[in-house]
Specification:
The chain has no helices and 20 strands. A hairpin with an 8-residue loop joins strand 2 and strand 3. The radius of gyration is 17 Å and the shape is globular. The C terminus is likely disordered.
Length: 230
């Protein structure tokens, strides 16, 4: 995979499909390294399993383990070194600036430390928000966890697109007028204005992590003409 050494990359979503972001898995191992070049693109990494170390001139020297995440704003060089065998999920996209507003800072933490909030009061559907919902961020990454039999309360249709990876359990996803069984390890891309709904099936909780674009009107360009280095 370009920019990565000793790493297997699995591309899940890309602009070649019509998306405005890139989503991929990086299978790392002891000795895996990368030195990602700075550019107009922003990056979000979520550690699925294993461990790695993040470093760079302007990045935190951080040890990342399952559930850890880091957001890297544009023009942030960073290196990733695998400590053990494992996987990380990455979202990359060009940053959409707003006048007189600086890009967000480097942001990191753990999903285990973020509150899981009942979605619209439903204690069986919990939403964990990983990044602040403030105007400088033009993306959100969240985790939804459903108890068996729980579901979204209605079919959603909105201007955002999603990149989704199923983490645990399984269920059924409605996209448009079609229905798709989905289980841990499956990935979905949902374009804007696509009707969508999820219900959890089976005997264990179902959870997924997903990306969406936020805090920008659809009239604003989602990429710069020059694109972004990834």
């Amino acid at each position: 995979m370009a920019g990565w050494e000793g790493t297997e990359g699995i591309l899940l979503v890309s602009p070649g499909m019509g998306a405005h972001f890139t989503m991929y898995l990086a299978n790392i191992g002891p000795g895996s390294t990368t030195n990602l070049r700075p550019g107009r693109g922003e990056r979000f990494f979520y550690i699925l399993d294993g461990s790695c170390r993040l470093s760079g001139d302007s990045s935190p020297e951080a040890f990342l383990e399952p559930g850890s995440f880091v957001y890297l704003p544009p023009e942030t060089p960073c290196g990733v070194a695998g400590m053990t065998s494992g996987r990380l999920l990455a979202f990359e996209r060009p940053y959409a600036p707003l006048p007189a507003l600086e890009p967000p800072p480097i942001t990191w933490g753990s999903a285990n430390d973020r509150p899981a909030v009942p979605f619209l009061g439903d204690e069986r559907a919990l939403l964990t928000t990983l990044l602040p919902d403030t105007p400088e961020y033009d993306l959100a990454v969240n985790i939804f966890t459903f108890q068996p039999g729980a579901s979204l309360p209605f079919v959603e249709t909105h201007v955002m697109e999603h990149g989704l990876l199923m983490l645990t359990g399984g269920g059924i996803y409605r996209l448009g007028e079609d229905w798709y069984p989905i289980q841990a390890g499956d990935a979905l891309w949902m374009g804007p204005y696509c009707p969508q709904w999820f219900g959890a099936l089976g005997r264990m909780p179902a959870s997924y992590i997903y990306y969406k674009d936020i805090n920008r009107t659809p009239s604003l360009p989602k990429f710069s003409p020059e694109g972004a280095e990834t």
